[in-house]
Amino acid sequence: MSPHSRTLSALLKPLRNWGMVLVLSMAVVVSGAIVAVKLRSSPVSPSRPVLISSGAWAPFVGPELPDGGPVTKLVVEVLNRSGYSPEISYTSWSLAEEQVASGSAVGVFPLVSSGSRHANFLISDPLIDFEYVLFYDRRVGKPQISPAANLSALRVGRIAGYDYWHELESAVTDFVEFDSALDGFRALADGRIDLLAEGLLSGHAVLTDPSFAGDAGNFAYLQDGGPLVHSVQGLHFMMADTSAATSVMKEFNKELAKMRQGPAYEEIVSELEPSAVGDVTLTPSGKTGLVELLNADGKLVLLAPGGTRARVLTWPKEFVGSAGTPSENILVEVKVTNGPAKGRVLYVDARALQIEAEGR
Asked: From CA 23, how far away is CA 294, in angstroms rounded?
């Protein structure tokens, strides 16, 4: 090696050493950045498990309902978004409230707001709205409640643990109390009470359930009488009124508001609509050997393969009222939910309907 080369090598040696240090330093910086990004993209902490109390109240909540019922699905989703992993415990309504008051459960749902609950609980924004009505037995006749004083002379049933609307509570001085809505409807069918105060949807759920032996068609609800016989109430999630729960409820309401602005909320609460139980499979019924999708006048619009599924939008009166003289063709309005005609609202011959098995 020439003297010139040896001199150049000696000069470059420190640069080579510093180059290695620089490369290692850059590697450390890049690795640190990657770790930092991963930490930021991961949850700060895992979801915290919490015990939540509720009662069985079809079609809103209940251990026998898919996913615990649509209101349970809603509360679980909101709590998940708030950073919690809820476990739902089903019990009586009175015990559910006691569990929250004692601290053995973090929250309870779905309850209506009342003066006593405002005094003892933090109350969420409404989860959903529902209707309270007064059911009666058609076979006995429609009870007369005008003037309002007449209502106090009737035997009015209530369900233990329910808080009813102010006008009814003020008019009825002595309710007949039952442990469950099923017991209440059995008493109404047996003539032991004249009216039963219950939610419209939950009342229909009991009347159509196989555990109730009576004919659902024998029962109706009062529609004339204003706030004395009807009330729209919000259902809420409630927590014990503590400083620690205040921040949790604030986050719950924030996530609930976000959900109500998007499709997830509508998808969940749509399960409460009567049409949600009208899922059917369409089978060929005409000469074509295919499912015939018609307009309101019965004219052919489209053909569809057998096995096409749809949701009944309106059941014809022959299926839910009085059949009268059978007509040759009964048309049913449906919305197609799969296949090439998915999303179309058309009509089919009632003979094309096949009701899907429970739990499908």
From this structure: 73
> Is the link from the previous residue into 147 a cis peptide, with omega within 30 of 0?
yes
Q: Which pair of structure tokens corresponds to residue 133?
A: 């009505």
What lies within 8 Å, CB to CB, of 157 at 6+ separation is 175, 176, 177, 178, 184, 187, 188, 193, 195, 196, 197
The band of 321, judged by pLDDT with boundaries at 50, 70 and 90, is low
Pairing status of strand 219-221 against strand 84-90: unpaired
- pLDDT tens readout for residues 277-295: 568 999 998 788 899 999 9
The alpha-helical segments, DSSP class H, found in 172-242 are 181-190, 200-208
Q: How far apart are CA 314 and CA 330, in angstroms?
A: 12
Residue 29 pLDDT level (bands cut at 50, 70, 90):
very low
Q: Which two tokens stand for residue 166?
A: 């102010």
Task: State the DSSP H helix or E strand holding residue 197, giving kind and residue range, or none if neither.
Answer: strand 195-199
Tokens (6 digits) for 58:
């079809």
d(CA 61, CA 109): 9
Rounded CA-CA distance 334/215 in Å is 27
**Model-level pTM?**
0.68
Query: Quick one: CA torsion of 161, 101, 238, 121, rounded to 10 degrees?
Result: 100
The residues near 311 (Cβ < 8 Å, ≥ 6 apart) are 275, 276, 278, 279, 280, 334, 335, 337
Tokens of 221: 């609800």
Q: Is the peptide bond before 263 cis (omega within 30 degrees of 0)?
A: no
Cβ neighbors of 211 (< 8 A, separation 6 or more) are 182
Cα separation, 122 vs 99, whole angstroms: 14
